Amino acid sequence: MKIGFIGLGIMGTPMAKNLLGAGHELVVYDRSEEKMGEVVKAGARGAASSREVAEKCRLVITMVPNSPHVKAAVLGKDGVLEGAKAGDILIDMSSIAPLASQEVYKACREKGVRMIDAPVSGGEPKAIDGTLSIMVGGDRETFDEVYDVLMVMGGSAVYCGDSGAGNMTKLANQIIVAVNIAAVSEAFMLASKAGVDPEKVFDAIRGGLAGSTVMEAKVPKILGRDFSPGFRIDLHIKDLNNAIETGHGVGAPLFLTTQVQEMLERLHFDGCGSDDHSAIVKYYEKLCGSEI
Ligand code: NAD
What we know:
The protein contains 14 helices and nine strands. The chain is an alpha/beta fold. The strands form two sheets. A six-stranded parallel sheet has the order 3-2-1-4-5-6, with helices on both faces. A three-stranded mixed sheet has the order 7-8-9. α8 links the parallel β8 (about 130-135) and β9. α9 (about 165-195) packs across α11, α9 (about 165-195) crosses α12 (about 235-250) and α9 runs parallel beside α14 (about 280-290). It is globular and about 65 Å long. The N and C termini lie far apart (about 50 Å). The mean pLDDT is about 100. The structure holds nicotinamide-adenine-dinucleotide (NAD). Nicotinamide-adenine-dinucleotide binds next to α4, β7 and α7.
């Protein structure tokens, strides 16, 4: 199948390469030309705009940072909707505000274009393995039609409800991840300050109830002082802002989320915005005046 792919960053590049590996023909675009190099070298055809991608493909995937980027790529000048035809499908796999997803869905529907929101969880390692967890909102029939394509990139793809439900689910995911990393950072700092070897703490508790996918993925990075992303602090700030705004809109209190958001904001102003979110530990290290 010929598939368009827009947004070839940390996530988009391995996802696009997996589609190529599964035998799909790919037309790709990124607003930064250098980001297209790796995927073009792997066999994709480069395009000059999102419009050109949509002109050439009946199925287009977007994987860009946030709501304004999706709107620019889809609704903007030289965007997907300028090139798409009625019946085409857009899968937006970016993590964006659920309300923005619904706005893009409506604009697509006016042109007869079918759109689902399908954000992912699992980060770069699972994007490389093709084992992402994919959460989907939109029309059920469209989800069913693209299920096999999603499963090239994912280990699971779950239909969550109407347009925006995929991104709503992703916000829940991002709250749990952020609060979990903060809890791990707080606990490991306590052990470290008290003179207990953090490697031993990890070995002792990872198999018990406190163990988690977050602990498995992030503690080795923390202990190895490897804060290369992964998932950047600035992207997590974006997700928690979307969660807090949505919480205000629906009347759901997000006490823990707002506290972790303040830590992330502090880290951003300390120049750590491009670090992996495991760098939440640096917030505690700064307060305590020592490294774990
Ligand atoms: P990234 O910043 O590495 O890549 C985004 C790419 O989109 C960049 O190459 C950028 O040039 C391109 N882009 C931006 N606006 C564009 C436009 N209008 N047209 C064409 N290209 C455009 O980000 P990423 O880490 O790959 O994340 C992408 C999305 O996936 C985000 O919504 C993020 O929250 C989500 N996500 C990331 C991770 C992770 O671990 N990195 C995990 C799960 C979900």
